[in-house]
Design brief:
mainly beta; Immunoglobulin-like; 2 domains; 5-stranded antiparallel beta sheet; 3-stranded mixed beta sheet; 12 strands; rod-shaped
Length: 207
């Protein structure tokens, strides 16, 4: 409890302003008496260690801070009490980085590609929700992603019907354990497939 000393806060801070108050809570928040007799509490001055704990709180989790204050009774004695400040956790969205797009060029065979996403999350698991062989948004192929964020895409056939010079896309939405989502998109450039000519291409004549 270094730096945390119980005192007659109401008497000490009589006439004080926030700027000159040196009273602090157990976890370092500056406290003072406002002009209307209320207790001021500045969470911005909480200790770095406590702020780190607050950041790690998930939804439904709580941490508390306390400080002791007193009220001087009519007979001159002090009545002591402990005030508690409760902090409720909320979900901090994961931060997703890495490769979320890829390009393919149509050939006479099905193509594949892939990439890796990374996630950081201060209050939840950074793992990705596993998906396996899920059809892309336009049905040109399937996506898979593992918990580590490694994803793959495989065209479901050569797609010879794709028009040369036209770009086709397929997408999937992936998510981390806390629900933070990321769109992955694969673009496929159509190419001109040479016509297949059959039939009689020779003839014979007799003089």
């Amino acid at each position: 409890m270094s730096g945390y000393v119980a005192g007659d806060l109401l008497t000490q801070d009589s006439g004080r302003t926030e700027g000159i108050s040196t009273d602090t809570s157990f976890n370092g928040a500056k406290i003072w008496i406002t002009s209307d007799g209320r207790v001021g509490y500045d969470a911005a001055t909480l200790s770095a260690a406590f702020k780190t704990q607050l950041q790690s709180l998930n939804a439904g989790q709580y941490l508390t801070d306390t400080f002791i204050y007193s009220i001087r009774l009519g007979n001159g004695t002090l009545s002591w009490a402990t005030a508690t400040v409760q902090f409720a956790g909320t979900n901090d969205a994961a931060v997703i980085t890495g490769t979320s797009t890829a390009n393919l060029t149509e050939t006479d065979a099905a193509q594949n590609t892939g990439g890796t996403l990374s996630a950081t999350d201060v209050d939840s698991s950074a793992a990705f929700v596993v998906q396996t062989n899920v059809a892309g948004s336009n049905g040109h192929g399937t996506f898979s992603i593992d918990a580590a964020g490694v994803w793959t895409y495989t065209m479901n056939d050569a797609h010879d019907e794709f028009v040369g010079g036209t770009t086709y896309t397929d997408s999937i939405t992936v998510a981390t354990a806390d629900g933070t989502s990321q769109l992955i998109t694969v673009s496929i450039l159509g190419t001109n497939d040479a016509a297949v000519i059959t039939g009689t291409s020779t003839a014979n004549l007799t003089e």
